[in-house]
Amino acid sequence: xxxxxxxxxxxxxxxxxxxxxxxxxxxxxxxxxxxxxxxxxxxxxxxxxxxxxxxxxxxxxxxxxxxxxxxxxxxxxxxxxxxxxxxxxxxxxxxxxxxxxxxxxxxxxxxxxxxxxxxxxxxxxxxxxxxxxxxxxxxxxxxxxxxxxxxxxxxxxxxxxxxxxxxxxxxxxxxxxxxxxxxxxxxxxxxxxxxxxxxxxxxxxxxxxxxxxxxxxxxxxxxxxxxxxxxxxx
Length: 234
Description:
This protein is mainly α. Helix content is about 85%, strand content about 0%.
């Protein structure tokens, strides 16, 4: 009985030393994880989109100019604006690769704007011819034909106005979608950086040691058996 008590008394300091060592290991792991988190947050700030990177504004401006255009010259000016922005954004692809997807989406919208400007140019030319025929019909006292041409012109212009409003809404929706996709890509990129940082240089053996240290901390926190119980088992 006495020898059992002596053995138990000698084992207590060993358990305490092991528990203290395990706690130090756990603290070291915690500090490593904290450092990794701080580095990941720093990288997250690095990858944040600049506030002036509003690439989606160019298509909306181009469509607004196109919607306001009434003459062939104004339509040409709106198309020229879209073409200039395409060149600028193509240059931005090289200087801002982090926003590659947003820039490419803006370029696609601007290319559509150029194509739609060409379509509007043809529509305006047809409307001009129809207006010339209407005036000629009035001069010839053909009021019925003039009224029919006037109705056709009114309907055509109304449909074009609706179509152009749809262009602007399309650009706005695409811009919002690209902003959401950019935020999602940024979050995934940040998570990947955090995962890479947390697992960098950690071998299977080190991971096993960390697991053992965590288990030791759990065991140290559990209540130790009493000396009386050890005496009874002896």
